[in-house]
Write a structure and sequence with these properties.
Rossmann fold, alpha/beta, 2 domains, binds 5,6-dihydroxy-NADP, 49% helix, binds zinc ion, single chain, Dehydroquinate synthase-like, alpha domain
């Protein structure tokens, strides 16, 4: 196990009827909030009314910034920053999934900077301060509710870049599983795939051979993501299933799993971000295509880690008492297909001849994330295993 510092400052308020806490939790940080939300699901399912009532009761004025799209855009972030400045906003409230929470984080950082917010994403500037952020999560997937990261797409160049800063942890995140009852089946599945991907990125890229504590934690999160997702698909209003999936997705990317692993990378995300940036693919749907391809590429050099995972999370029939890496990959791929998350580029309507352009796009993020072994050719090789 490597040395580590684990410090996650986000306060989590979890459970039924917790949305009423957003008012007091926000008032502790400011009195004029920018309310960031997406395309309107919160207005259809009643979350908007509960959140605004709580904010108004707490005496927090509301300036709205709706319209965040999935795979959020820099142009919309910039509009939010202008709105903050023109309305003397002193706190940001995000109500939605990862796209909304990430946009809000970028607005918090950009509003406190004298330069354009994209300079943070291109690594030219680092965050020195940010507006405080509180959130109400409505989709179990990204883990943004309890981490310091965010991912934004620059409209004009289609670069979908992500970075993190200790200034950007939400002060408080409200996780009420009942808010996710209305998440459609496809996004329920994509969210579980995203949580599994967050764990796999750590599990597969750590170079430390002796991490049994983290391994069991990560294996458990993968098993929980699969199990709770299936229960949510069977009954979208199964509170315990929604609660299990929500808390699993949060734990999958709040820093706990990575503690002690040493240097890790996010190569599957590096490639997937290009699918989302270029084709507006749902993040989890892109991951269920990239994960098997990346694992097949990775197994040529490092089959044992994949086999180890397979022996821990899948049951293999008697004669295969020791699963192979290819059997493990196929079982994971079969699970993605079972929850109707795509497993081939063709299912995303992305033709083979687009692979060079996708790797041209992805290699920029590989450089930024210092994934130096991922050259354009290597990314093309991996994508050719996703066809
Ligand atoms: O537009 P709205 O109304 O919000 O509708 C959304 C959107 O259409 C809908 N939805 C959300 N909650 C709902 C709901 N529909 C009905 N009922 C509800 N309760 O679901 C759709 C997808 O929402 P989105 O926020 O895009 O999904 P997700 O939470 O998967 O977030 C994806 C974004 O997170 C980023 C991804 O890159 C992507 O941009 N990520 C952020 C990370 C982080 N901050 O650490 C890490 C992740 O790896 C990921 O990259
Ligand atoms: Zn992700």
């Amino acid at each position: 196990m490597q040395n580590f510092v684990f410090h996650n400052p986000t306060k989590i308020i979890f459970g039924r009827d917790t949305i009423a806490s957003i008012g007091p939790e926000t008032k502790a940080w400011g009195t004029r909030c920018l309310l960031v939300y997406g395309g309107g699901s919160i207005k259809k399912n009643g979350i908007y009314d509960k959140v605004t009532a709580s904010l108004q009761e707490a005496g927090v004025a509301i300036i709205e910034h709706g319209g965040v799209q999935s795979n959020p855009l820099l142009s919309h972030v910039r509009e939010g920053i202008d709105r903050v400045r023109h309305n003397e906003v002193d706190v940001v409230v995000a109500v939605g999934g990862g796209s909304v929470l990430d946009s809000a984080k970028a607005i918090c950082a950009g509003a406190a900077a004298a330069h354009d917010v994209w300079k943070f994403f291109s690594g030219k500037k680092s965050v020195k301060a940010a507006l405080p952020l509180t959130t109400v999560l409505t989709l179990a997937a990204s883990g943004s509710e309890m981490n310091s990261g965010m991912v934004i797409t620059r409209d004009e160049t289609r670069e979908k870049f992500g970075f993190g800063s200790r200034h950007l942890y939400p002060k408080t995140s409200i996780l009420d599983p009942e808010t996710t009852y209305t998440v459609p089946k496809n996004y329920t599945a994509y969210g579980a795939v995203d949580a599994i991907a967050h764990v796999l990125e750590y599990y597969m890229t750590t170079e430390d051979p002796a991490t049994p504590v983290q391994d069991r934690l990560m294996e458990g999160l993968i098993l929980n993501a699969m199990d709770s997702c299936e229960r949510c698909l069977a009954d979208p209003r199964d509170y315990n299933a929604r609660a299990d999936l929500m808390w699993t997705a949060t734990l999958a990317l709040n820093g706990l799993t990575g503690a002690g692993l040493g240097r890790v990378g996010f190569p599957m995300h590096m490639i997937e971000h290009s699918l989302s940036a270029l084709y507006n693919v749902a993040h989890g749907a892109g991951l269920s295509v990239v994960i098997p391809g990346w694992l097949r590429w990775h197994s040529a050099a490092n089959p044992d880690r994949i086999t180890h995972l397979g022996s821990r999370i899948f049951r293999f029939d008697a004669q295969h008492n020791e699963p192979t890496s290819s059997q493990t990959i196929r079982k994971l791929e079969n699970w993605f297909a079972r929850v109707k998350s795509p497993i081939r580029l063709s299912e995303l309507n992305i033709p083979d001849e687009h692979i060079p352009a996708i790797s041209d796009n992805a290699v920029n993020l590989a450089r930024f994330w210092r994934l130096d072994q991922y050259t354009k050719d290597t990314i093309e090789e991996i994508l050719s295993l996703c066809r």
